[in-house]
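for the record, two folds in this file. i put them one after another cuz i was lazy. first one right below, seq on top, structure tokens after. the second one comes after a little note so u can tell where it starts
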Amino acid sequence: MLSERRLQVLRAIVQDYVGTQEPVGSKALTERHNLRVSPATVRNDMAALEDEGYIAQPHTSAGRVPTDKGYRLFVDKLADVKPLSRAERRAIRSFLESAVDLDDVVGRTVRLLAQLTRQVAVVQYPSLSRSTVRHVELLALAPARVMLVLITDTGRVEQRVIDCPAPIGETSLADLRARLNARIAGERFTEVPHLVRELPDSFDAEDRGTVQSVLATLLETLVEETEERLMIGGTANLTRFGPDFPLTIRPVLEALEEQVVLLKLLGETEDSEMIVRIGRENVHEGLTSTSVVAVGYGSGDEAVAKLGVVGPTRMDYPGTMGAVRAVARYVGQILAEK
């Protein structure tokens, strides 16, 4: 365990290096920070930190930079994250409230995260498997053709056109709509198959084929792979950090193009718990020079999806973590209200 003084020295090194991108020397530390010890003591503390792998000397200069291990300890010892100002919180809510549908909410969230953190933003669409049914609408397009509109509690809207085996009257369609909503509105999607299993038996024989077609389409919608969708933005921000990547940012860009990699990264987040993966803690080789900050969003303590940012390990962790957490909270509120 490091002493509190050496932790203070490590914090100062991280803060200075993130801010200046220059290796940090003992003289600069004593001048910029109120460490209340002599430069010789700071040099001794830095030597001990280097021996334990928390900082490293990138070249022959006297300065030191944090290692992945140093950043990890810095993040683990954060007393709190940097809060957003009241004006920033108002601006976030106002920007997200203007969204017209779920796609717009996700798109605005990506742009907002990328702008606030100046990193690459990644936002997963709400998962149907974690959602509940808000409403089911059935619209007659033709005597034997029906449109099913499924609306979730997260504002997601799924539309399907169904060719029915026989014509269905408006009265029967209204009856089916009412019975469906009575059974499944407000229920988790995982419960829907059980709740509608016996529904066709309650209809007249001439309508059962159509009811079964509607239910089959509804159930297919619940398990379609399209639920694993995400949106990414702010990739151009990486160009500001060219020197932070050992050789080139190309491996990072290639990793970001692989949706399965990003979904796996976000999938490590448990509900509304925040994760911070630093450097080689990211198992994908292309991301070993980056850090990932991610958290779940949704209503209450249960997340319906994840969002986060990817950037260099030389990251403003308190500010990034504060921005990611705040945006996740507001996105959850907006989706619940819509």
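(here's the note) second protein begins now
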Amino acid sequence: MDVVQFITRIIDKVSAENLVAAGMLFATAFGCALIAYLRTAERYSFAEFFEFALPHAVMTHPSARADLLFYITRKAIMPFLLIPAGVTFVVAVGYATNRVLGTIFGIDQPVFGEPGPVTVVLFTLTMLLAYDLSYYLYHTAQHRYPFLWELHKVHHSAEVMVGITKDRVHPLDELMNRAWDGVIPGICFGIWSLVALNPVELTVFGINVYIMRNILMMDFVRHTHFKISFGRLNAVILCPHWHQLHHSTAPQHYDKNFGLLFSFWDRLFGTLHVPHPNEDFTFGLVDRDVADYQSLSGLYLLPLKKMGRRIARQVRRLRGIPAQPRSGA
């Protein structure tokens, strides 16, 4: 294969939809950086804006370097893990829900047949709510149960936020999250498959609404230092500044603001904490071994080792074997 064929294949893989989505992501990040800069700067200059958007101390921080290495290696291995699992869990649970409810209520054909525009909109909205509630519940469990927390600590070990910190997620953690996401959204999808034949997600300007959600919820921006608030929309949409509080090491911020897109789950379940305007946060973990999470081995292997130790302690406890004393403690 020559160079021209190689480049042609790459271009063929980049669809117009992906280009538009990438353009919107860049525009959103740039716009938020500009807004945050204009709100805080006393004098305006391109050099100062560049330093504000990409601070030297942040971009050269060991945590930022770890984010970059982790992002590259994770992008290389995740397709092999998640392509088979991407929609398998939702489809499996959806099919089981369809069969069980169809048998109970005697439904063997979709009630309304082909979906119309109203059906598509309602389907999309309910699936968005199902996915968001599913994320909230799993995210809460990640903080409440030590076994899951050992994996989730990879994400919280970031001591600076550089956008791609959003992908600082252990592969096993993501795989388990995908499996859990099959439950609530899968049940929702299964019910809809009884109502309308082959319901499809809504698109906006040709872009799938879930891609639009990922852009509009500013997952990249909320993993930066840009203090972006949505004003009155904060009552519905979780703004970047509120999520940045979730990464804070301050005790009063622990286990707060678990939401993904919508903020009303946190308000409903009592986990909402509203930061002061322009409030600064210190990010990271308070664990003694926090520095060990700033390398690839620490990000990939340390959580598995700690989970193994927890399993071993639990097995010894169940078998009535006294716990072994920790050396150097």
